[in-house]
């Protein structure tokens, strides 16, 4: 499948990776037993693909997919999710060698209401020549906080939230899942590494294994509480060239699609959230889920 992506005066690289048992998405994981096979997954050859036009530059992304249509991440094993995380990490490290890119966004649109363009479950990676506005704001705000207090705002938040516990959805040795203090949407969830880490792609193997476990557990809970909602999932990490820092802390944001963004939100950039984060956290935390069989 060929996809044209056009940004005014600029370009982007797109890859789609499926959360399904893919022969081609067996990235090297703990023991490095399996090697990645780039030809089987979405690959963009950015060097050959950029085409200048009067309206800007176009990038042509070539997508290839193999997937099991009935399988989603809830049926995927923890190991399969971990393999996808490794594939994203490897792809990010590769794309960062291209000096034109400033940010690599990994995201997932699950369900039609969340804007999923394909019927089968998949996650996406897009490399951008600019730092997205939302990320820039988060990074700059956290830098200002750091200048003021000499502490990472996310580390402070994690400490406070674990102390109070009311907005904590779950905690493992490596991660904490929170309902943020000022959520934009009902049941918004953030997953953060407990130890300070400024970039998703620069971590040790146990972290990706731990994240796969936490992701699966949280998505199973979300499904149980909200009856399989559509949702968006985004990884926020430091921009390219700013990867190692003390002020920004990579994290995942999950936003179930339960409300509509309307005039007030568009007009102000503020969000009216009808559900308190304490209530959301309690529902998800206390969800009765069938424990996954050991893998
Ligand atoms: Zn931190
Ligand atoms: Zn964020």
List keywords for this structure.
3-stranded antiparallel β-sheet, HIT family, subunit A, alpha+beta, binds zinc ion, 295 residues, 21% strand, 8-stranded antiparallel β-sheet, 7 helices
Topology:
Layout: E1 2-8, E2 13-17, H1 46-49, E3 51-53, E4 56-62, H2 78-95, E5 103-110, E6 123-128, H3 133-149, H4 153-164, E7 168-171, E8 175-178, E9 189-193, H5 205-226, E10 231-236, E11 251-256, H6 263-268, H7 277-285
Antiparallel strand pairs: 1-4, 2-6, 3-4, 5-6, 5-10, 7-8, 8-9, 9-11, 10-11
The protein binds zinc ion (2 copies).
Short description:
The protein is α+β, with helices and mostly antiparallel strands. The chain is 30% helix and 21% strand.
Low-confidence stretches: 1-9, 18-70
Helix content: 25-40%
Domain count, please report it.
2
Q: How big a fraction of the residues is strand?
A: 15-25%
**Sheet of most strands:** 8 strands, antiparallel
Order of helices and strands: EEHEEHEEHHEEEHEEHH
- How are the strands of the largest sheet arranged? 2-6-5-10-11-9-8-7
- CATH topology name of the largest domain, in short, is HIT family, subunit A
Small molecules bound in the structure, each named once? zinc ion
CATH hierarchy class name of the largest domain: Alpha Beta
Q: Tally of extended strands? A: 11
Mean pLDDT across all amino acids: 80
Q: What is the name of the CATH architecture of the largest domain?
A: 2-Layer Sandwich
